[in-house]
Amino acid sequence: MNPSFFSILPISLCVLILILFLLVIYFWLTLNTREEKIAQLENSHKKMVRSFNELDEQAKLIVKTDLELNKAQEELDKRLNGLNALQRTSRQINQALNEDEIFEKLKNSLFEELGFSKTLIVVIDEKQRPKSRTQIGFDERTTKQALEVLFKDDYLKNTLNEGRAISSINSPRKTKERMLQIFDTEHYVLAPIVTQTGMLGFIFVGNRSDAPAVTQGDEELIAILAGQIGQAIENAQLFDKVFRSSQELEIKVKDRTKQLATALSQVEEINRKKTEFISAVSHELRTPLTSIKGYAAILMAGKIGDIPDAVKERLGKINTHSDNLVNLINNLLDIARIESGRVDMHFGVYKTKLLIDNIVDLLTPQVTAKEIKLNVALSPLIPDVYIDLSQAERIFINLLSNAVKFTPKKGTITLSVLPSSGKGFATFEIADSGIGIAPADVEKLFSEFFRAENEINQTVKGTGLGLVLAKDIVHAHHGKIWVNSQLGKGTSFFFTLPIDKGIFDTNKQNTPLT
Amino acid sequence: MPTSIAIGFSQAEDPKDAAHQACVLVKNQLNSITTDMVIIFASIHYCSKEVLSVIHTILKPARLVGSSSASIIFSEDIYKRGLAILAINSQDLNFAVASTSYHPGDPLDQIGFEFGRKINADYKSSITRQASIIFCDGLSLYDDQLLRGMKELLGRSLLIAGAFSCDDFKLKRTFQFYQQDLLSKSVVGFLFGSNSAVAFSNKHGFRPLGKPRTITRVEGTVIQTIDHKPAISIYEEFLKDDAKNLKKGLLKSSIDHYPLGIYLEDQQQYLLRYPVDILNDGSIVCQASVPLNSEVHLTISNKDSCKNAAAEAAQEIKMALAGRQPQILIVFESMVRHRTLSQYSFIEIQTIKEILGYSTPLIGMSSFGELCPAGLDENKTNLQNGSISLLAIC
Asked: How distant is the Cα of A67 from the closest Cα of chain B, in angstroms?
C-alpha cells in the first residue's frame, strides 16, 4: 500500500502549509474588505462633496434672493426716509412767509437724509438773473462757473423750461458728461422749480462716483421737493402781495378817515353856523312880522277908520300869510334849537294811551272834515313812555297831519303801537291809505325844505320842515324814524320812543341829541 | 452719595447751540456744579472744538472722552444726527481717562503700552479696576498688539472693551474726544473701578452660508487666497453681477449684508469681518488680522437672527448681574449692522429693554468695529464686525 501524500510530509510542514493557506485566505478577505471600505469612503466623500456643492448652490440661491429682497428693502427704506424728510420739510417751508425763510428752513440735513452730498438750489430773480439760494458742496466760484455753463447749454435750459427733471439714470451719455463737467458729479438729479408763471429756478442734487447711483425714486422725490419749493415761493409771494395790499389799504383807510374827519368837522362847523344863522335870522324876522301882524289887525278892526271890503280882504290875506310865515319861522327856530342842543327837554313818564287820546282829540276835526276813518290800535299791555310830552306830541301831530293831508276822502289812517319794539323802546306806526311816495323821494323825505312832487303838494301849501322837525325830536329821544311807502297804496311812518329812562344813560356816549 | 447719571441730547442745527441744549438738560438732571465723568457720542456735524468748549464751560467735567458716530442710540429711538452727553457723578465709581495718538506704521504694542501707562497714572483710587472702555479711530487698521500693550500694564484679566469711531459712511475721518481736545487717529478711553457689578456681552447673530472654505494665504489683515483662489472669488461666486462693483462700493453695497465669518476653533465662534478694501490681486483687506488655515464662510443674518442675538446678549448680562438692576446700559452697535437692519434696527433695542427693564437708562453709538472679550478665553480681546455689544454698570 502506498503511503498517503500527507503521511510522507512531516506534520510541522503540514501545519505550516495550513497556516499559510489560512493566512492567504485572511489577507485575501482583509484586502477585499479594505477595498470595499475604501470604495465606501470614496462614495461617502463623493456624496459629501456633492452635498457641500449643493449646499453652496443653495446658499447662492439664498444670497441671490436675499440680495433682491435687500435691494427692494433698501429702495423702500430710502423712499420712506426721503418721504418722511420731505413731509417734514414741506410742512416747514409751507409755513414760511417769505422767500428767505423758505431757504432757511431747507436744512442741510434734509439733503444728507436724502443721501446727497452736493446740492445747489438756484432761483431766478426779477431781473432774470440766477441766484444761488442753497449750496452744499459748492463754493461761490464753482457755483458761478456751473451756472454760467448750465445756462449756455440749450438742452439743459430747454429741459428745465419744459418743466422736466433729468437724472443720471435717464440722461443721454453726452448730458452725463456735461453734468460731470459742470457739477463734478456722476450721479445727479436736476429738477426745475416751476410756478404758475413758469420756471422759477432749479434744484440740483448729486454725488460723486463712489456713491450709490440715483434711482427713479430719487428723481421723483427731488421733483416733488422742487414742486413744494415752487408752491411755497408762490404762497410767500402771494402772502407778500396780500400783506403789502393790506398795508396800503390800511394807509389809505387812515388817510381817508382823516380826510373824512376833517370834512365832518367842517360840515359840523358849517351846520352850526347855519343853525346860528337861521336862529338869528328867524329872530330878526319874527319881530317885524309881529309888527306887521299887529298893524294889520288894527287896520282890520277899524280902529283907525273904516276900510273898504276889498282892503279888508287884502288885510285878511296879509294876516294869513303872516301866520304861515310865523309858523315857518317857529319851525325853523325849533329845528335850530334841537340841532344845536339848546332846547330844554323835559322828560317824564307818561301814559301812552293818554298821549294818543289827546292827539286823536286834537286831530278829530280835520279827520272828520275829510270823512277819514282813524283807527287806533293799542294793546292793553302797552308800556308808559319816557318822553318830553310837548315835543313828542309834535311828532304825532306832524305825521298825522301829513297822513290826513295825503289821504283822500273816506280813506283810512291807523295809529298803532307795535308789540315788538326793541329793547327799551316802543315803536309807533302811522299808516295811511293815501297817495304814497315815489321811491326816489323816500330818501329825501327827511331833508329840510323837501316837498315831494305830487298834486296835493301843488295845491296845499307847506314848509317842508315838518318831517325834519319830527326826525329831530325822535333823535332827541334817542329813537329812530323810518318810512315804508308804495306809490298809490299808502305810506307807513314808524318811529320809536323810549319806555325806559336808562336808555339815555346807555346811549349817552353814542348818540348825539340831534 | 449715590451715583447720579444724566443724559442730554440735542439736534440743534448749530453745534454750539446743540452743546448748550444738551448740557442744560444734563445740568438740570445732575443739579451739580461739576461733573465727574462725561462721555460724548456725536454725529460728524457736531464734532468740533467749540462743542467741547461749551461742554467744559457748562458741565466742568473732571474727565471727558467720546467718539464720533454714524448714529446715536437711545432707549426711545436711534438718531442719525445729534449730540449726546452721558454724565456721571459718583462716589462709588472711580474714573481715569487717557488718550494716545498714532500714525500708520507706529508699533501698536507701544501705543497700547503708552495708553495703559497714562490711564494707570490717572487712576487714583485703591478700589479694584473693573473695566476699560476705549474708542479707536475706525479708519485705521487694528492689530491685537494694541490690546497686548495695554494689558501689559493694566493686567490680563481686566475687561477691555470698546468701539471704533465712525463717521457718516463717507469713511473720510473719525473723531475722538479727550478732555479739551478733538482728536483723530487716536485711541481714547476711560477706566473705572467700583465695588458694584459690571457685565459685558457681545453677539452678532450671523449664520454661515454654503460649504466651508479655507483661508490658504494671509498676511496680517490681508486675506490673499481662499481655497487657493484670490480671496475676492468667494464674493464673486455668491454675488455674481453684484460683485463687479465691490471695490467701488465697499460698505455701501450689497457686500455689507454678507460679512466673512471666520470660525475660531479655540473660541468655538464665528468672527465677523467686513472687507474694508479689495486689492488689485483680489486680496481682501480686513480691519483686523485673521488666522491662517481657518475655516471661512460668507455669513447672513435677518432681523430675527439679529433680534435673537440682542436678546442673547441681554440675557447674558441679566445672568451676570444676578438680579441687580443696571444703573446705565451702554450699547455699541455695528454701523453696518444698523444700516442693513434699517427700520428694524430699533427692534434690537426694544428687545434689550424688554429683558433688562424699561427704566434702565440706555445710551449708545454706532461703531465701525466692536472690541470685546473672546468667547472662551476671557483674557483675549477680539475685534468683531457687525455685532452688538452691551455694557451694564450697576
From this structure: 7
Alpha helices in A302-344 (DSSP H): 309-340
Q: φ and ψ at A192, to 5 degrees?
A: -75, 145
Residue type (1 letter), A10: P
CA dist., res. B109 & res. B144, Å (int): 8
**B235: Cα separation from own chain's centroid:** 26
Nearest to A184 by CA among A148, A138, A216: A138
Task: Mutate one of A50, A66, A79, A110 to test the B interface: name it (highest B CB count within 10 A).
Answer: A66
What's the rounded mean pLDDT across residues A220-239? Answer: 87
B384: left (phi over 0), alpha (psi -120 to 50) or beta: beta
* pLDDT for residue A509: 40
pLDDT at A180: 84
Is residue B372 within 8 A of residue B161, CB to CB? The reply is yes
CB contact under 8 A, A73 and B342: yes
Q: Which of A55, A74, A112 sits opposite B211 (nearest CB)?
A: A55
**B 71-110 near A (Cβ less than 8 A):** 80-81
Q: What is the ipTM of this complex?
A: 0.79
In 3D space, the residue among B105, B112, B111, B159 whose CA is nearest the CA of residue B132 turns out to be B159
pLDDT digits (tens, 9 = 90+) for A139-191: 888 888 888 888 788 888 888 888 888 888 888 888 888 888 888 888 899 99
Predicted TM-score (pTM) of the model is 0.64
Q: How far apart are CA A188 and CA A166, in angstroms?
A: 8
The mean pLDDT value for B354-365 works out to 92
Does residue A10 sit in helix, strand or coil? coil
Between CA A106 and CA A96 the distance in angstroms is 11
CB contact under 8 A, B300 and A63: yes
Q: Do A210 and B254 touch (CB under 8 A)?
A: no
Q: Write the residue in A60, A77, A209 that is nearest to B237 by C-beta.
A: A60
Spatial CB neighbours of A37, under 8 Å, sequence gap ≥ 6: none
Q: Measured between alpha carbons, how far is A508 from A157 in angstroms, rounded to an integer? A: 72
The predicted-structure confidence for A311-366, as pLDDT tens digits, reads as follows 888 888 888 778 778 777 777 777 777 776 667 788 899 998 889 998 999 888 88
Distance, CA of A169 to CA of A213 (rounded, Å) = 8
Phi-psi region of A48 (alpha: psi -120 to 50; beta: other; left: phi over 0): alpha
Chain A residues in contact with B210 (beta carbon < 8 A): 52, 55-56, 58-60
The pLDDT of residue A235: 86
- The pLDDT of residue B99 is above 90: yes
Question: What distance in Å separates the CA atoms of residue B192 and residue B127, rounded to the nearest whole number?
Answer: 9
Average pLDDT over residues B227-255: 77
